[in-house]
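User: Just a sanity check before I run the rest of the batch. Below are the structure tokens for the first item. I only need the designed sequence back.
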């Protein structure tokens, strides 16, 4: 009897670390922004590993942008990023497969950005065009994430997430970057060192064990 109980306990502990399914998703909001802004490309995808009460998350994407304010300046950025973390599923007992989560992420980015700007000297009356480049600059930050997912068709989900991003750190090179791929504008770093982000996901679920 004791041996059977020990065997059952061991089985439970091992299967608790085996995901019941996986979801693959793409950020529709980023695709819409890419479609309407010819200077912007932002593509982000994610994979979620379903452990019922908890969900392991891996997110990755690419980001390029040109901020054109000529004749004063032009800013170009090209980079990629990833985020890893875990969510607590507060609706893991839900029969309609809805998901409401709260979780944490750690994000890393790597990018190259270039700033071109013009200086006008009122004393000597000359104009000088200058440029500076950050080559393969890296940065890291953390996020607190709240998300909701609803099944709209068989295994197809529509999801939304709101993110509070903070603690951005990077090693400055030629100048402070205007943006960090995956994080957003960095102009708040010197003020409150935090920003908000939003995503609208379309996800497909593959389940190999019933919830």
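Assistant: Here's the designed sequence for the first item:
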């Amino acid at each position: 009897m004791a041996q059977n109980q020990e065997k059952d306990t061991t089985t439970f502990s091992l299967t608790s670390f085996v995901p019941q399914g996986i979801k693959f998703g793409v950020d529709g909001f980023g695709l819409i922004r890419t479609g309407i802004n010819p200077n912007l490309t932002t593509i982000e995808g994610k994979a979620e590993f379903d452990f019922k009460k908890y969900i392991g998350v891996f997110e990755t994407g690419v980001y390029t942008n040109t901020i054109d304010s000529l004749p004063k300046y032009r800013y170009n950025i090209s980079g990629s990023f990833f985020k890893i973390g875990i969510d607590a599923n507060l609706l893991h007992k839900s029969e309609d497969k809805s998901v409401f989560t709260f979780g944490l992420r750690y994000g890393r980015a790597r990018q190259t950005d270039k700033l071109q700007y013009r200086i006008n000297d009122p004393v000597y009356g000359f104009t000088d065009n200058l440029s500076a480049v950050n080559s393969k600059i890296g940065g890291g930050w953390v996020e607190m994430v709240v998300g909701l997912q609803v099944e709209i068709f068989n295994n197809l989900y529509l999801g939304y997430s709101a993110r509070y991003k903070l603690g951005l750190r990077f090693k400055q090179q030629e100048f402070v970057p205007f943006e960090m791929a995956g994080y957003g504008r960095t102009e708040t770093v010197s003020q409150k060192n935090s920003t908000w982000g939003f995503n609208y996901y379309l996800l497909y679920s593959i389940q190999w064990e019933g919830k």
